[in-house]
């Protein structure tokens, strides 16, 4: 290479878009090496130094440390290997940041106390195995030991949250609230009573869920504007009671049940379920007036 194609440290810094101090530091560290020296002893750099400087800038912008960059430039490690390792590390950081953002957003929207904030933070950071244990304990308390496992096996699976490996912020927020519900003794007791009522009437043949039955049978009455206090309501109510008891209907009134199902849909990426509350409330009003 002819000397007139070489650049001094100032010109290299200008072409590379960095300060002279930065080029001097990289040069002292052996990351960007001079191609020679001028007659006066000043460092001179060629096109190779400019290319290395551009690569260093790019890798630094991507968050890769200088010792690793030196290893890449010295071919001690390949750039794809370094990129893969840093991409994996960034994925972990992004996941952690999403968790923090979800918790902070929930704290801000709910006006949480310090104790609630700590609980949400802990629930958001649970491992997959810890999440399974928490949900499994909840579902055991609701469905376990009733002697009708074939009836509830599918229902249990349909009530199991599966947080994806790379959840969206709203899925994390939904999981935290759902996990809180799973630990609510009152909610557990309410669901258990509803399930016990279904199990008591089990005759070995799976039947549609109470919520689905009420929506199907009472939906036409709601669409037609039938007054639940009128005589016209009686055949609809009779049809519902052919499939379930009044106690089971009261078990559907707990708003925590619908909240759980809506949160479950968010966590699992499902279409939100249709609410059965209007149909159940209509039926209970009709029963109270009978």
What does this structure look like?
It is a single chain. The protein is mainly alpha-helical and 290 residues long. Helix content is 67%, strand content 1%. It is built from 15 helices and two strands. It has helices at residues 9-16, 20-28, 47-61, 66-73, 79-110, 114-124, 128-143, 149-158, 169-182, 185-200, 210-224, 234-241, 246-251, 255-268, 277-289; strands at 36-37, 43-44. A two-stranded antiparallel ribbon has the order 1-2. Strand 1 and strand 2 form a beta hairpin. The termini are far apart.
Tell me, rounded to a whole number, the average pLDDT. Answer: 86
- Count of strand segments: 2
Biggest sheet descriptor: 2 strands, antiparallel
How many individual helices?
15
Strand order of the largest sheet: 1-2
Radius of gyration: 33 Å
> How does the overall form come out from the CA principal axes?
rod-shaped
- Which stretches are poorly predicted, pLDDT < 50 over at least 5 residues? none
Supply the helix-strand structural class: mainly alpha
Approximately how much helix is present in the residues? 55-70%
Beta-strand proportion: under 5%
Order of helices and strands: HHEEHHHHHHHHHHHHH
Q: Terminal Cα separation, in Å?
A: 102 Å
